Amino acid sequence: MKQIYIAAGCFWGAEKYFSLIKGVHRTEAGYANGRTENPSYEDVCRGSGHAETVLIEYDPSVIGLPFLLDLYYDAIDPVSINRQGADVGVQYRTGIYYTDEADLGIITESIKRLEAKIGEPAAIELKPLENYYAAETCHQKYLDKNPGGYCHIGKSLFDKARNF
To answer: Is there a catalytic annotation at residue 138?
Structure first.
């Protein structure tokens, strides 16, 4: 299994979306690349600098990182800064945080293809993972527990993810 950490705005919908994709073994909502240790949701909302992030553990023999990233780009506004859907703030920035240096070239090329497609620079933070903390239990599998909960990712994308 390999891991990648993806910030796509609110982690409730992003966690659900990625969990539906064939080849994704596990997802977890959390907080990445901030200034404080073990932040709470309230700390993140108050400006700890963390991004709401989804840990994605996937089987590279089933799904490749380039394809996973293409699905990610489908679920975000790639030029929006510190905002996705109705959510606004640094914690809702988009980002790709890697732990395997070999992934950097793949991610960089993927972002270049995205930028060529959209005709402008993407506002996706690309950094090595500096830190990551799992979110509180109430945020894990949130949309499974609260099917009517808010999500900036549309139902059609959830359906598309299920059918890959």
So the answer is: no
